[in-house]
Amino acid sequence: MVGTLISLVNLTELLSMVLGGSFVDRIVSVGIFTLTSTSIDTQARWIADAELDARPDLVRTMSVAPPRGEGRVRLLEIPGVDLQACGGTHVKNTAEIGKLSVARIRSEGKRNKRVTLVFS
């Protein structure tokens, strides 16, 4: 089921171009529902700043960088779904998030999409 979520999220941009926004919103909503209704334990671990520099794929936000200066950075993993640098508070498992729905998906450029979620 988690693999399905990843496939749906990766197809968002293509589907948006071909099918239009409302259909894509529904597909993303299904993926989010799947993730938040499946209790997947998150895992935190630490890597050195140098290793983070060598793996730029771990930082996916363009405007917010993970906290540095202590020689290490915390990573948060949702096994089978995502792994990236984390500088904030996070849930112990995905079921703690609760019910979410997609309010809108907006293009912020060629590589960026802004997804607005609301708690339902």
In short:
By secondary structure, this protein is of the alpha+beta class. 33% of the residues lie in helices and 27% in strands.
Number of domains: 2
Uncertain segments are 1-9
Tell me the strand percentage band: 25-35%
Number of extended strands: 5
Cross-sheet strand order for the largest sheet? 1-2-3
Alpha plus pi helix count: 4
The structure class reads alpha+beta
Rg of Cα set: 15 Å
- C-alpha end-to-end distance: 22 Å
Give an overview in words.
The structure is a single chain. It is built from four helices and five strands; from the N terminus they run H-H-H-E-H-E-E-E-E. The protein is α+β, with helices and mostly antiparallel strands and 120 residues long. It folds into two domains: 1-41 and 93-120, no CATH class; 43-90. A three-stranded antiparallel sheet has the order 1-2-3. A hairpin with a 3-residue loop joins strand 2 and strand 3. Helix 1 runs antiparallel to helix 3 (21-37) and helix 2 packs antiparallel against helix 3 (21-37). It is globular, with a radius of gyration of 15 Å. Mean pLDDT is 77; it is low at 1-9.
